[in-house]
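Please, structure for the following, as tokens.
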Amino acid sequence: MNTALKALQLKARHQVYTMLSGHNLSKLHGEGYDFSELREYQVGDDIRKINWTITAKLGQPYIKELHANRELSVVVAALMDASLYFGSGNAKQKKLTEVATILGYAAQQNSDLFTGVQYTQDKIYATPPSKQLYHIEQFSQTLYDTSLLKSSLYHDHALKDLFKRLHKPSLLFILSDFLEEMDLSLLSQKHEIIAVIVRDSAEESPKKLGEVTLSHPQDSKKMDTYFGQRSIEKYLAKLKENDERLSEHFARYDIRSVKIFTDDEVVSKLVGLFV
């Protein structure tokens, strides 16, 4: 195993057993939460249970059933492409891996079922629902080792797959830099979602660079340009527009979110979710 990854995992485990002690992920559900199961309509089902919102989105009838919450299912879904490879290295990818690892250890400490799902351009990697450290650390290693340069991801396809893949209503953490628009409305009908936005501080506070050669991480195309104040203002305006749409979307579907920068301490940010 990579020495840097091992150090990341040891740090994550230590923080979970110290700083996150007493902050069980189950508390993020709220008291008295009832899970609802969504499944395809079958002949003989009560038509009054049909969920028309999801039926309209998927083009086939789904029904909603309520049952008691007995065991918490924690799912960490990582949506990864070349946009995580920002600046001089892959700090965003490493930070996303750290977040996922901490959430996995936190689930394991609380004896919750943990499932990790990774979406990239070429593959979908998923662990079985488990309470074993082996699966958490395999997921961590996969996130850390994946090569993302020149890759892109169709987020809509990934989110639809995630909806069909997760049968049990879960506490669902979606990890991404959220620089592209995502529709989480379907998943929010079935799961309690927490969006974890992983960014580099330089993405939100860029500096004047003057004459510079920019390289696009998804196709490696290069462009010589002048990155001055006007370029910064134009870029920040687009970023603000993106994030405002994102906030409105989260508010509409009762999705909580936390933004974590590459130089942040992850646990201190996650603890804020419990307040």
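The domain at 3-26+72-274 is CATH 3.40.50 (Rossmann fold). The chain has a mean pLDDT of 84.
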